[in-house]
Design brief:
The structure holds two protein chains of two kinds.
Chain A (H helix, E strand, L loop, with lengths): L3 E3 L3 E4 L5 E3 L1 E3 L5 E8 L3 E8 L6 E2 L6 E7 L2 E6 L8 E8 L10 E2 L3 E5 L1
Parallel strand pairs in A: 2-12
Antiparallel strand pairs in A: 1-4, 3-9, 5-6, 5-10, 6-7, 8-9, 10-11, 10-12
Chain B lengths: L3 E2 L4 E5 L4 E7 L6 E7 L6 E7 L4 E4 L2 E6 L4 E6 L8 E8 L5 E2 L3 E6 L1
Parallel strand pairs in B: 2-11
Antiparallel strand pairs in B: 1-3, 3-8, 4-5, 4-9, 6-7, 7-8, 9-10, 9-11
The chains are: A mainly beta, B mainly beta.
C-alpha cells in the first residue's frame, strides 16, 4: 500500500522555536506539497516541489521554508513559530503535476499547536 | 478570487437519504475533477473523479456529475450513512497543481 508518512501526529511548540515537519513518501513521486488546513479556509498551499532541490512558493509561504534533499523526503520548516501557525499541516505527493487518476496522496497530517 | 467554490460550509442529512454536495469552478480549461473526503485528525483521501469528457461517473453509493456549461459539479451519496460524516473537498486542475475548494462538512444523522 502506497504511503505518505508524516513524522508526528501531534506537536506542541513554543513561540519562537524552529519547527521541522517531516514527510516521506514511498511511491517514487516527483511532486510533493505542503498544505495547512484551517476551519473555513480549506486547504491552503504553502510550498511545493517538482523535483529534488527544487521548491516553489504556494499561496501562503510567509513564515515557512522547505527542503527537498532527497526525492522521497520533503520537509517544512517554521523558522520562528508563531501562534497563528497553529494548524493542521498536510503533506501530499503526486506522480504528475496536478491531475491524473487519484490526484494527490495525502499523509495523515500533523496537528501543530504553538503556545 | 476563488477558482473553486463550495458555497455550503455544512450540510446535514438524515441517514438513508441523499446527500448532494456542490462545487463551482471558473476556468473552463480545467479538465479533471476530484472529490476528497477528510475525517478529523486524518489526511484527505481520494473518493471519486471525473474527466471533462464525461458528465457522470459512478462508484457504488457515490456519483459525481459534471455540467461543463454551468461549470458545476456535484457529488451525490445515496444512501447516506453516518460513516459518511466528514469534510468533502472538490478539487480541479489542468496542467498545474490541483486547486481545492474550502470544503463542505457533511453530517449524517442516524
Amino acid at each position: 500500500d502506497v504511503k505518505v508518512t508524516q513524522s508526528s501526529r501531534y506537536l506542541v511548540k513554543r513561540t519562537g522555536e524552529k519547527v521541522f515537519l517531516e514527510c516521506v513518501q514511498d511511491m517514487d513521486h516527483e511532486n510533493m506539497f505542503w498544505y495547512r488546513q484551517d476551519p473555513g479556509l480549506g486547504l491552503r498551499l504553502i510550498y511545493f516541489s517538482y523535483d529534488v532541490k527544487m521548491k516553489e512558493k504556494g499561496d501562503i509561504p510567509e513564515g515557512y521554508s522547505v527542503s527537498r534533499e532527497k526525492k522521497e523526503r520533503f520537509s517544512l520548516i517554521l523558522e520562528s513559530a508563531s501562534t497563528n501557525q497553529t494548524s493542521m499541516y498536510l503533506c501530499a505527493s503526486s506522480l504528475q503535476a496536478g491531475t491524473g487518476r487519484g490526484g494527490y496522496t495525502f499523509g495523515s497530517g500533523t496537528r501543530l499547536t504553538v503556545v | 478570487d476563488q477558482q473553486v467554490k463550495q458555497n455550503s460550509p455544512s450540510l446535514s442529512v438524515q441517514e438513508g437519504r441523499i446527500s448532494i454536495l456542490n462545487c463551482d469552478y471558473t476556468n473552463s480549461m480545467f479538465d479533471y475533477f476530484l472529490w476528497y473526503k477528510k475525517y478529523p485528525a486524518e489526511g484527505p483521501t481520494f473518493l471519486i473523479s471525473i474527466s471533462s469528457i464525461k458528465d457522470k461517473n459512478e462508484d457504488g453509493r457515490f456519483t459525481v456529475f459534471l455540467n461543463k456549461s454551468a461549470k458545476h459539479l456535484s457529488l451525490h451519496i445515496v444512501p447516506s450513512q453516518p460513516g459518511d460524516s466528514a469534510v468533502y473537498f472538490c478539487a480541479t486542475g489542468s496542467q498545474g497543481n490541483l486547486i481545492f475548494g474550502k470544503g463542505t462538512k457533511l453530517s449524517v444523522k442516524p
